[in-house]
Amino acid sequence: MIMRTVQGGIYAALRDDILRGVHPPGAAINEAQLSRQYGVSRSPLREALSRLVGEGLLVCEPNRGIFVRRFTEKYINDVLNMRDILERRGIRSYLGTEAQRKQLAAMRAEAEDILSQEPFDLERHNEFDERMHYMVMGFNDNEYIDQLARQIYTLSTLFSIQLKTLEGGIESEMQHIELIDVLLSGELTKAEKLLQRHIRRTKLLVRAAMAEGREEKP
Questions:
Q1: Helices in 94-142 by DSSP H: which ranges?
Q2: What is the pTM of this model?
Q3: Tens place of pLDDT per residue across the chain (218 aa)
Q4: Most buried by CB count within 10 Å: which residue of 56, 95, 171, 206?
Q5: What angle separates helix 166-184 from helix 188-216, to the nearest 10 degrees?
């Protein structure tokens, strides 16, 4: 039980640090250094690294080691395309039950609170963004999709943090509110179109960020 607690603790801490950019994309994972940094032995650390490789946050390269995933434009688009498919399916499965409407209303109030905060808290927005889209996918009420969604949103959170600017975060939050309002009104076809617009915008941000990165290289 103690070992499981240690494994869970190092996994959560390391995952959170990767998502916050403490360990940036492409960074090599040094087991000895991480063991000292997090105050754990190699055994639970290796279990945590194995889980993170399975989730896609880390990649294991034969004869080279383990690295924080570095995203390509195609890989990000593949993730976003899968989100588009599963989230639109979630919208079509939305029943408008009292519990769902209460959940949406609570999320809307939180989004309004994020927008009213000065200065705008981009980190809080990114955390909300993951929960918002995970909620939409949850309308599928499908256990297998739920398992898949956890991996998809872990990856989405990582590259979203790398791409979003302050202005982009504010615009994204406003789109969340618009989507919630349309869902609450029961206009599911319109909600699907809004979702597709939201994801297309993210793809454009990806393309622009990738282009800028190529230009900056000597």
A1: 98-116, 122-138
A2: 0.77
A3: 334 455 568 898 998 888 878 888 889 999 999 999 988 888 889 999 999 998 888 999 998 999 998 888 888 889 899 999 999 999 999 999 999 999 999 999 999 999 999 999 988 998 898 899 999 999 999 999 988 888 888 787 777 766 667 788 899 999 999 999 999 999 999 999 999 999 998 888 777 777 775 544 44
A4: 206
A5: 170
